[in-house]
Automatic annotation (TrEMBL):
Signal peptide: 1-25
Cofactor needs: Zn(2+)
GO biological process entries: proteolysis
Source species of the chain: Actinocorallia herbida
Hydrolase listed as a keyword: yes
The protein's name in its UniProt record: Aminopeptidase N
Gene3D superfamilies assigned to the protein according to its UniProt record, in alphabetical order: Neutral Protease Domain 2, tricorn interacting facor f3 domain
Length: 465
């Protein structure tokens, strides 16, 4: 996420209750109602791992009604007597597990508790189909801002970071359960529906259009996205990389899409040189007026909340969200407390871009950021434990980028950039932690980094150089 350009509990882990069924039968128990996420205890669930979401949506921007049918393919990580999905609001019409009707109930803010007709054995692949409808309600969180399914003047945009996904589909809403996604989105003819990944085509009949999209690479639910509206669209294919770029037709001026596409491609080429091969099979971007005050690194195709007619976002914003395709999307912190691994490096990519283009060097930008007085806000938080309400605070970005720079200084350019490439290649498609990053950096460089991490990552206050 990036904001500055536009606008200046204990883990829930239900005890595993073993229910003896009969001699020799596998034991079954309920999956946990949480995923061990400290900052957002209700997010995610235990007992299974999702491999794929097949999401079918039909949206009417006049009545604001959403009708959904989602097929989840998952693997049981324990014998399951029942399990939870996350879903906020909306009316569940039916639930089936492996094709058989299942019982369900709604509890708490976002728990859909599903009891299949019979227990699911540990290790078994199973499917869940949930049919639902209703008017999705966006989340307005103070201080984390607006997220989820957000109605716009001509459609809707779904932005999920950190916990908006459950406002529009049933989901295991934790960054650590990545899956592939298929989308089929039906909208009134004349509107365009965009999601993550590769565009598979559009069919129009009886006044409605169905747009199909596919994200083949593993994706965290917080990075999934839908954008529906009147868009001007540009599709290009250069060197095998498909790009799909869309601008709200009320904002677009002639030539703007081409410029935006060209910028995206040149930034991706440069980032690939620094970070290694681009991790996805398509790219692009979306400019739309969503009124959330931020840009988001939705996987494969960032969304910029935007209202400046004929203008594209500034380079540093485009660089930031595209850098996240590596730091955040391909390699994703399993827990929200480690979000500096995203924001620090995406911000550092901005510094590097400025340096590359003849502006201030990264060293000069570090010096500038570091010159903040000892009582400045930027020194008040702990990078690896910012606290629930502070995951998007400026210090996560600035102290994060400063930490990246200190690491560069400690290791030297050759080792530092080699480390970044190796870390991203090794972690591709997976989830990580700050501890793993430090251990990896130490192994890669052969240097002991405890002192650097202790000062910059695990303690508040202005570190001594
Ligand atoms: Zn960001």
């Amino acid at each position: 996420m990036a904001a500055p350009r536009l606008f200046a509990a204990a883990a829930v882990s239900a005890a595993l209750v073993l229910v003896p069924v009969s001699a020799g039968a596998a034991p079954f128990g309920p999956g946990a109602a949480g995923s061990g996420e400290k900052y957002f205890p209700g997010m995610g669930n235990g007992g299974y791992d999702v491999a794929h979401y097949g999401i079918k949506l039909d949206y009417d921007p006049v009545s604001l009604a959403l009708t959904g049918r989602v097929k989840i393919t998952a693997t049981a990580k324990q014998g399951l007597s029942r399990f939870n999905l996350d879903l906020r609001g909306l009316l569940v019409r039916s639930v089936a597990v492996d094709g058989k009707a299942a019982k369900w109930k709604r509890t708490g803010a976002q728990e859909l508790v599903i009891t299949p007709a019979k227990g699911i054995p540990d290790g078994r692949r199973f499917t869940v189909v949930v049919a639902y409808d209703g008017k999705p309600a966006q989340i307005n969180d103070d201080p984390l801002g607006s997220s989820g399914w957000i109605a716009t003047s001509d459609g809707a945009v779904a932005l999920n970071q950190p916990f908006g996904a459950a406002t529009w589909f049933p989901v295991n809403d934790t960054p650590k359960d990545k899956a592939s996604y298929d989308f089929a989105i039906t909208v009134p003819q004349g509107l365009t529906a965009i999601a993550n990944g590769d565009f598979l085509g559009r069919k129009t009949a009886k006044g409605k259009s169905v747009y199909r999209w596919r994200m083949k690479q593993p994706m965290s639910s917080e990075l999934s996205m839908v954008a529906i509206g009147k868009y001007k669209v540009l599709r290009t294919n250069t060197g095998g990389l498909e790009s799909y770029t869309a601008i709200d037709s009320a904002l677009a001026e002639s030539g703007q899409l081409k410029k935006y596409d060209k910028k995206t491609r040149s930034v991706l080429r440069w980032l690939s040189g620094r970070f290694g091969a681009y991790p996805f099979t398509s790219t692009g971007g979306i400019l739309d007026e969503v009124n959330v005050g931020y840009s988001l690194e939705t996987q494969g195709r960032p969304v910029h909340d935007w209202n400046m007619k004929g203008k594209n976002p500034p380079d540093d914003l485009i660089v930031h969200e595209l850098a996240h395709q590596w730091f955040g999307d391909s390699v994703t912190p399993a827990k929200w407390k480690d979000i500096w691994l995203n924001e620090g490096f995406a911000t550092y990519a901005e510094w590097m871009w400025t340096e590359k283009n003849g502006g201030a060097t990264a060293a000069q930008q570090f010096k500038q950021a570091y010159s903040a007085g000892p009582n400045a806000d930027v020194w008040k938080g702990v990078l690896a434990e910012p606290g629930r309400d502070h995951i998007f605070d400026n210090f996560v970005y600035q102290r994060g980028a400063m930490t990246a720079h200190r690491l560069r200084v400690a290791l030297g350019d050759k080792v530092f950039f080699g480390l970044l490439k190796s870390w991203l290649a090794t972690g591709k498609g997976g989830t990580v932690s700050t501890k793993e990053f430090q251990a990896f950096a130490e192994r890669y460089s052969g240097k002991q980094l405890d002192a650097l991490f202790a000062k910059w990552v695990y303690k508040a206050g202005k570190p001594k150089l």
